[in-house]
Write a structure and sequence with these properties.
alpha+beta, three-stranded mixed beta sheet, 1 helix
């Protein structure tokens, strides 16, 4: 595995749906190639929302007017409506969906650690925990 890359948040922004961007098959954490020819090796964290289109039949579909999100927040003050810090991982992804692709569970774990590290950094800057 090559050296861990710096991760800038959010990794998926408005109107996007995939990280790394479509056509880029390098692991965003270590840089390893996840595709070679027809062979694809990746671990995917799928984030999504669906709309119920028929309650009686219990059928669901992708909502083309949905915007997906994934945030890690810390509430350390009395105002429950406002977080003290927020790590915006995915913001307003297209169709309420996002695929975050990695070469291995080791890199997926490193990604989760990077999110927590960023939350810790923001908390320290706020003078919190």
């Amino acid at each position: 595995m090559t050296r861990r890359r710096k991760i800038n948040f959010p990794v998926v922004g408005k109107g996007q749906i995939r990280w790394p961007q479509p056509g880029n098959f390098e692991c965003p954490v270590c840089g390893k190639l996840m595709a070679e020819g027809e062979k694809m090796e990746q671990v995917v964290l799928n984030i999504g929302a669906m709309m119920q289109n028929d309650k009686e039949k219990n059928t669901w579909c992708v909502g083309f007017n949905l915007g997906g999100f994934m945030h890690i927040m810390d509430h350390t003050h009395g105002d429950v409506d406002l977080p003290s810090i927020s790590v915006d991982v995915v913001e307003q992804s297209a169709f309420g969906q996002a695929d975050l692709c990695f070469c291995s569970t080791k890199c997926l774990r490193a990604f989760f650690n990077a999110i927590v590290d960023e939350a810790d950094r923001q908390i320290r800057e706020e003078g919190g925990k």
